[in-house]
């Protein structure tokens, strides 16, 4: 049978002069600017509390900038935009639904296909993430890595062109995480979305990205951007022992330490 898994391509994302503060606090962002090319894989790193999740919430349209613009394909972003897909740190599956029903649920939110076609598509995306044969398993019968694969399938089945990921593999052990990194690259190469991927893990950021954005402490925005010239395809040990990998790692560790040690000038956070 013909597969309906499709290359979706990515869209241009623009964050332009964004200012944001929570009600009672001092600014989290003052004049944040970031342009992401269609199909680019950007990783964002920075110490705890620097505003990574806040950035994602702004991009998802869950919160609105006080000033400035966030544009996807030239249009303001909005919360129910079907072009957006999210993957969070915890798999957040419905425990009473099987793997395929969980994926189908993602589809029901955005799709008016007949139920039989929805089920077929859900099966195809489960196969895409390597879970053929596990369609009828309830989440509690799946490992953490497998649950996160179901989560990925549930997001990808809606064919988002911008994928927002908040430490999606942060709860997994180191080996499963490396496997998921390879899976992530395979899926991205096949589907072609624009990806904004938040992580605490410098190795993960270097392994995955085209570009790494280091966030500064509030309200300073971006500390620096590093263009990642590690050759693709990335492949396990060959990539991880590449000279550039070590060079980037050294630089980024220095950056993170610098950012973590700097104090907010107004003494209100950190
Ligand atoms: N709802 C809120 N109301 C007020 N302040 C908030 C709220 N959510 C987050 N903050 C503050 O905004 C700053 C950025 O928080 P955010 O959750 O974006 O950090 P983060 O970089 O994702 O951290 P972590 O790595 O720990 O997940 C923090 O100082 C936090 O205390
Ligand atoms: Mg966070």
CATH class of the largest domain: Alpha Beta
CATH homologous superfamily descriptor of the largest domain: P-loop containing nucleotide triphosphate hydrolases
Helix content: 25-40%
Strands across the major sheet, in which order?
6-7-8-3-9-10
Number of helices: 8
Q: Give the overall average pLDDT.
A: 90
Number of domains: 2
Number of DSSP E strands: 10
Query: What CATH architecture label of the largest domain applies?
Result: 3-Layer(aba) Sandwich
- Principal-axis shape equals globular
Low-pLDDT ranges: 265-270
First-last Cα distance: 56 Å
CATH-defined topology of the largest domain: Rossmann fold
The secondary-structure element order is: EEEHEEEHHHEHEHEEHH
Bound molecules: adenosine-5'-triphosphate, magnesium ion
Helix/strand class: alpha/beta
Strand residue content: 15-25%
Radius of gyration: 19 Å
Tell me the major beta sheet: 6 strands, mixed
Task: Describe the protein in words.
The chain has 270 residues and is an alpha/beta fold. The chain has two domains: 37-83 and 161-262, P-loop containing nucleotide triphosphate hydrolases (Rossmann fold), CATH 3.40.50; 92-159, no CATH class. The chain contains eight helices and ten strands. A six-stranded mixed sheet has the order 6-7-8-3-9-10, with helices on both faces. The chain is globular, with a radius of gyration of 19 Å. Magnesium ion (MG) binds next to helix 1.
């Amino acid at each position: 049978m013909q597969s309906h898994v499709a290359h979706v391509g990515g869209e241009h994302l623009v964050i332009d002069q964004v200012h944001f503060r929570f009600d009672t606090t001092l600014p989290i962002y003052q004049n944040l600017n970031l342009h992401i090319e269609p199909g680019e894989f950007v990783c964002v790193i920075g110490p705890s509390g620097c505003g990574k999740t806040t950035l994602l919430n702004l991009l998802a349209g869950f919160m609105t900038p006080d000033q400035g613009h966030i544009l996807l394909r030239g249009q303001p972003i909005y919360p129910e935009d079907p072009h957006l897909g999210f993957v969070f740190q915890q798999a957040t599956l419905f425990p009473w639904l099987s793997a395929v029903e969980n994926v189908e649920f993602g589809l029901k939110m955005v799709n008016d296909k007949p139920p039989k076609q929805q089920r077929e598509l859900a099966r195809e995306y489960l196969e895409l993430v390597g879970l053929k044969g596990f369609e009828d398993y309830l989440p509690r019968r799946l490992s953490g890595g497998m649950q996160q694969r179901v989560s990925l399938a549930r997001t990808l089945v809606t064919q988002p062109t911008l994928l927002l990921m908040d430490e999606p593999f942060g709860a997994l052990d180191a080996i499963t995480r490396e496997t998921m990194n390879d899976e992530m690259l395979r899926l991205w190469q096949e589907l072609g979305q624009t990806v904004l991927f938040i992580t605490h893990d410098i190795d993960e950021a270097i392994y995955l990205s085209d570009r790494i954005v280091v966030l500064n402490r509030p309200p300073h925005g971006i500390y620096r951007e590093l263009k990642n010239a590690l050759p693709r395809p990335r492949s396990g040990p060959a990539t991880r022992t590449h000279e550039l990998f070590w060079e980037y790692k050294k630089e980024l560790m220095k950056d993170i330490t610098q950012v973590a040690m700097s104090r907010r000038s107004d003494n209100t956070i950190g």
